[in-house]
Design goal:
The chain has six helices and no strands. The chain has 137 residues and is mainly alpha-helical. Helix 2 packs across helix 4, helix 4 runs antiparallel to helix 5 and helix 5 crosses helix 6. The longest helix has 29 residues.
């Protein structure tokens, strides 16, 4: 089964663009805030899309689609590790990304955005690896 990752690829491109642009402007400026907001939103969308596609990748390992649909986000990644699709270290980082995402949903201050900035490099590496794993048959 081929899984379409075009939207995830676009999300990654948007995230990378926001990340590159934020590095070109002065911290505290309106442009910085605009790029930071874009980066955080792109991070959230990319994270959610990653979970949706991983769910599709895991379907063959379960007795039914419903069984996969009932998995929590973190259970998706636990099962990806269980089936040797990703490493234990990656699972732990994906848990960190999800926890960060949950914090962004409840705290709209500067601190959460700055925390997101700190994890973007690893996130970009991990989401690209996840995309490759999803597209491999």
């Amino acid at each position: 089964m081929t899984i379409n990752t075009e939207y995830l690829e676009r999300c990654i491109e948007t995230l990378e663009k926001s990340y590159s642009l934020i590095k070109t402007v002065k911290e505290g400026s309106i442009d910085y805030e605009m790029y930071r907001n874009s980066l955080v939103k792109s991070f959230e969308i990319t994270l959610e899309q990653s979970g949706k596609l991983l769910r599709k990748k895991l379907e063959p390992y379960f007795s039914s689609k419903k069984a996969v649909d009932n998995l929590t986000f973190k259970d998706l990644f636990r099962n990806a590790y269980k089936h040797s699709l990703i490493s234990e270290e990656e699972v732990n980082r994906w848990f960190l990304y999800r926890d960060n995402r949950n914090n962004t949903a409840h705290d709209y201050g500067i601190a959460f955005a700055e925390e997101t900035l700190k994890i973007i490099d690893n996130f970009l590496n991990d989401v690209k690896h996840l995309k490759e794993m999803i597209t491999n048959e």
